[in-house]
Amino acid sequence: MSVSRKKRRFRLWTSIVVILCFGGAVLWLMRETANRPVTISPETTILTGPLRPDGTVDYVAAINQIHGKGVTKENNAAVLLIRAFGPRLLPAKTRKQALKMLEIDNLPTDGDYFVFLEEYVEANPSPTRPAAPPTSQPTTQSPLHPGSLPPHWNHPGGGFGPGPDPHMPPPPPDPT
């Protein structure tokens, strides 16, 4: 056996032994510390309550308690957003709890709510929107060519857009 082959084999076995020792130490530490009770006190954590039934801090309730001071149904923007977008804005898993916390009652799932753009486009295909040109045939007109835009977008000042900005002063007269 060559010297380099012996060195490689030694390194391999050394690496395996080190990994096994490290893994064993981690498993031993996990077993030793797994059943220790967590002591909730100002010395160990900033938040000391409210606590869950198992004795750990309920962080969501703590954040609501700290940042919810002075927030009412009348001055909470979340209430307005949910009334505008509907309850589907909330995850189905926590929807009932969130609506109860926000004091929103009798909000139907299907109602007259704002619709996201993608949903609106899918539900209302536009008859005036031109179909995409076939990809196999080359187009003779650029999509930015003035003749391809709606007539009210082709204004005498040239360029593209709905026309001159009514809030801007008119351009200076042409000296020629």
What does this structure look like?
With 176 residues, the protein is mainly α. 36% of the residues lie in helices and 0% in strands. The chain contains five helices and no strands. It has helices spanning 3-33, 59-67, 77-85, 95-101, 117-123. The chain is extended and about 90 Å long.
Number of strands: 0
Question: Main sheet?
Answer: none
Low-confidence stretches: none
What's the helical proportion of residues? 25-40%
The number of distinct helices, counting runs of at least 4 residues, comes to 5
Distance N to C terminus: 97 Å
State which percent range the strand residues make up: under 5%
* Mean pLDDT over the full residue set: 76
What is the string of helix and strand elements? HHHHH
- Structural class based on helices, strands and sheet pairing: mainly alpha
Could you write a compact summary of the structure shown?
Helices cover 36% and strands 0% of the residues.
Chain-wise SSE layout:
Layout: H1 3-33, H2 59-67, H3 77-85, H4 95-101, H5 117-123
Give a quick set of tags describing it.
about 35% helix; about 180 residues; single chain; 5 helices
